[in-house]
Each structure stands twice: as structure tokens, then as C-alpha cells.
Design goal:
This protein has 130 residues and is α+β, with helices and mostly antiparallel strands. Helices cover 45% and strands 21% of the residues. It has a 5-stranded antiparallel beta sheet, sandwiched between helices. A two-stranded antiparallel sheet has the order 1-2.
């Protein structure tokens, strides 16, 4: 399992290219999604689960440490949305989506439960998943 420190940044802003970040109001919904995805893959996922407290601490730190250029794009607005969701008690999954088929599997799995927000990080774009 990865750590937050090993994920990509863009000018100091959290930007985990090739991953989807999903927030769930209920931790059991995050666990259900992980279980479903692991069953499909027939192996443990290289994913990261963050408690509301862990994401809030990480997001606050990232908001304060990001560079000027990062503040010009949408990266920091997205991190602020993560912080807001974490402060409201959301549990987060950071899931690898190296290609469109993996992203589609994750998207289908998260739509089986209520989720607060989902963002897929492409090379230079953040895509909101509806």
C-alpha cells in the first residue's frame, strides 16, 4: 500500500496522477467498495484508505505548503474540497486507475454506495466523477 508521501504532486499540490480519490460519508461504504474491487481483481489493491482526521491533516498541510503556481489551477480547490469533506467526517479511498478500464471498474463500484465526491487525476487534468 502506498503512502501519501509517495503520490505525485504538481508544484507542491497534491496531484496523484493515475489515481481516483473518493470520499464516502460512511466508512463501511469505503470498505464495501474496496471489498468489491478486490474481489474483481482477485488480489489486494494497492490503494490507500484515509480516516477523516488523516485526510484533514494532510489537506491542511498541503494547502499551506503548495507553491504559487499550484494555487493558479484547480488542484488547490480540489484539496480544499477534500478538507471540507474530511471535516464533515468523510472517509477517503485513493485508488489506482492506470487506464480507462480500471477507472470504469472503480466508477461502477463507487456507484453502488453513496459517495460525497470522486476525482480522477489524469496527467494534467482533474476529472470529476458523477
Amino acid at each position: 500500500m502506498k503512502s501519501l508521501d509517495k503520490l505525485h504532486t504538481d508544484f507542491g499540490a497534491f496531484f496523484p496522477t493515475g489515481h481516483m480519490v473518493v470520499a464516502f460519508q460512511q466508512a463501511q461504504d469505503a470498505h464495501q467498495v474496496m471489498h468489491e474491487l478486490e474481489e474483481l481483481a482477485q488480489r489486494p489493491l494497492d490503494a490507500l484508505e484515509l480516516t477523516p482526521q488523516q485526510m484533514a491533516e494532510f489537506a491542511e498541510k498541503n494547502l499551506h505548503q503548495a507553491g504559487f503556481i499550484a494555487n493558479m489551477g484547480t488542484s488547490m480547490k480540489t484539496v480544499q474540497a477534500f478538507l471540507d469533506a474530511a471535516k464533515a467526517g468523510a472517509t477517503f479511498l485513493i485508488l489506482p486507475v492506470p487506464d480507462n478500464s480500471a477507472a470504469e471498474r472503480v466508477s461502477q463500484a463507487i456507484h453502488h454506495v453513496p459517495f460525497v465526491l470522486a476525482e480522477r487525476y489524469h496527467r494534467m487534468v482533474i476529472e470529476t466523477v458523477h
